Amino acid sequence: MIKLSMLNQIALLRLNRLFNLIALVGVVILLVECADQPQYQIIIKNGTVYDGSGNPPEIADVAISADSIAAIGDFSEFEAETEIDATGLAVAPGFINMLSWANVTLLEDGRSQSDIRQGVTLEVMGEGTSMGPLTDTMKKDWIEAQSDIKYEIPWNTLGEYLQYLENKGVSTNIASFVGNGTLREYVIGLEDRKATQSEISEMKELVKQAMEEGAVGISSSLLYAPSGYSDTEELIQLSQVAADYNGMYISHIRNEGSGLLNAIDELIAICEQAGIASEIYHLKASGADNWDLLDTAIEKVDSARDAGLPVTADIYTYPASSTGLHVQLPRWAREGGIKATIDRLKDPDQRRKILSEIEFEHNSDRILLVGFKNEALRKYTGKRLDEVAEELGKTPAETMVDLIVEDDSRIQVVYFSMSEENIRKKVAVPWVSFCSDAGSYTNEGVFLKESTHPRAYGSFIRVLGKYARDERVITIEEAIRKLTSLPAENLKLKRRGRLNPGYFADIVVFDPEQVRDRATFEEPHQYAEGVLHVWVNGEQVLKDGDHTGAMPGRFVKGPGYVK
Residue 472: is its pLDDT beyond 70? Predict the structure, then answer.
């Protein structure tokens, strides 16, 4: 009996060891299975996924980990901390605004609401002027010129500004060109003259600095002072420096009316001679007499591209432009900037001379007044120049001059100068991307003190709603390509512009049947509809159509950035 008991104990001991071994194997298998199963923070499920390539969409799930897209596929068996059901909704890369004037509005309110609510996740700033480099005198002048939005200027260079904005907090990503007008003012001032080679060399060093800080290229705005004081050779030399860093030359070309074709020739020449990718800001044929020039303009760019030159363009999706009322004054009267212009207008003799030379590029009944600095003049907001002239009993030219002096500013206006048919033509061109050419606003507070152009609230959503869905000028997938991967590739941005694993999680989810713009010229401060969710660098900024308050935007650095 004793021997049997000892045998039973040995058997039980061996059996226990076997059970322990089996249990251990099971734990190992479970751990291996868990290791093979990715754990995602966010899964956007069952969406119609447009990857930004222009290819047809597919129904899939998009998984996000940290700031990046982890995977795209079928994750129906997986769970995540946050799950979004995107059944029946479009899932796309975040949109890129190729010409944003949000550089000041984001200092006031970093939420970038009018753009975020359209799906924009990257603001590209710096049309001819940029937020650096700045001298102490330039800073002083900027502070004196501030209107409703007040801000300090603790930065000196463009890179310092962009980093300051990121640190302050911004919902969208941000990038910028360095403006040739800013470089000219830094080195030469506001004189209308040819730059010396020594001055050009100094500007080239500033371009080098900006590119190494992360600028995406160099820009010009040749209708305006002092950018337009640069001749073609100066622009070529500056662009060659940007080209050394794989940057872009982008330009508000010298003439968008009767001289459109010559102005495009200048940009193509800069592209070829500087060896730099080049883009036309807000391509247009302005003025009814010039609308038929657009076809030839497009042919010119097509020919350049066929010859191997990387020329592209961007547009906003409205048949009206917006800039200062002062551009209707003679060129010599605008020399030295708006302060010098106003001083001339105050001088009786010069005022008479200016009035005698004014030839309106646009009829006064097609000029809408939208932005006054002087609150006493804001009663004219939303009126046409001819209406105000009749009310004051003056000619349109006299009214314009007097308003500029009284407002002590250039006065922001809208010019109804373009053709809707031409807008459709441009939307269909495969090398055209999109911009707002406007600030990014919240429709409350200080932003309501002035009117604006509806493009600030609707330029991108009109691509998807009006031109793709309703008018079928292009397909939804092509619209998304032109909003995302096209501008990202033109700017040579890494890991942006597509829904690919490893790319940053800049993602927009929208209802393709409901996207539409609501902003009008009469009531522009109205958000677009149909965008439900937006992520920037993996953090949700828009949820069920409401801003979350998150500010995960980053300074997106150009290809020449040196750490």
Answer: yes
The CA distances from residue 554 to 145, 433, 484, in Å, are 28, 22, 17
Residues 6+ apart with CB under 8 A from 157: 132, 133, 134, 209, 210, 213
Distance CA 409, CA 303 (A): 41
Looking at residue 527, its pLDDT comes to 98
Burial class (CB in 10 A: 0-12, 13-18, 19+), 22: exposed
Neighbours of 60 (CB within 10 A): 21
User: What whole-number distance in Å separates Cα of residue 268 and Cα of residue 250?
Assistant: 11
Token pair recorded at residue 23: 């249990």
Q: What is the 3-state secondary structure (H, E, C) of 520-562?
A: CCCCCCCCCECEEEEEECCEEEEECCEECCCCECCECCCCCCC
Q: Within 10 Å of residue 378's Cβ, how many Cβ atoms?
A: 16
**Predicted local distance difference test score (pLDDT) of residue 14:** 55
Arithmetic mean of pLDDT over the chain: 93
Calculated CA dihedral for residues 85, 89, 90, 95, nearest 10 degrees: -80
Q: How far does the chain reach from its first CA to its final CA, in angstroms? A: 83
Asked if 529 and 118 count as a contact pair (C-beta separation under 8 A), the reply is: no
The answer to whether the beta carbons of residues 537 and 503 sit under 8 Å apart is no
- Rounded Cα gap, residues 177 and 350, in angstroms: 36
Q: How far apart are CA 416 and CA 423, in angstroms?
A: 13
Q: Give me Rg for the CA atoms of the chain.
A: 28
3-state DSSP assignment of residue 54: coil
Q: How confident is the model at residue 29 (pLDDT cuts 50, 70, 90)?
A: very low
Label residue 336 by pLDDT band (50, 70, 90): confident
551 Cβ contact partners less than 8 Å away, ≥ 6 residues apart? 110, 111, 169, 170, 171, 541
Three-state SS annotation for 312-349: EEEECCCCCEEEEHHHHCCHHHHCCCHHHHHHHHHCHH
CA distance 358 to 439: 30
Query: Of 158, 100, 171, which is closest to residue 487 (Cα–Cα)?
Result: 100
- Which of 330, 328, 409 minimizes the C-alpha distance to 370? 409
SS3 74: coil
Which tens digit of pLDDT belongs to each residue from 342-387? Answer: 999 999 999 999 999 998 877 899 999 999 999 999 999 999 999 9
Q: What is the pLDDT of residues 102-150, one digit of tens each?
A: 999 999 999 999 999 999 999 999 999 999 999 999 999 999 999 999 9
Predicted TM-score of the model (pTM): 0.91
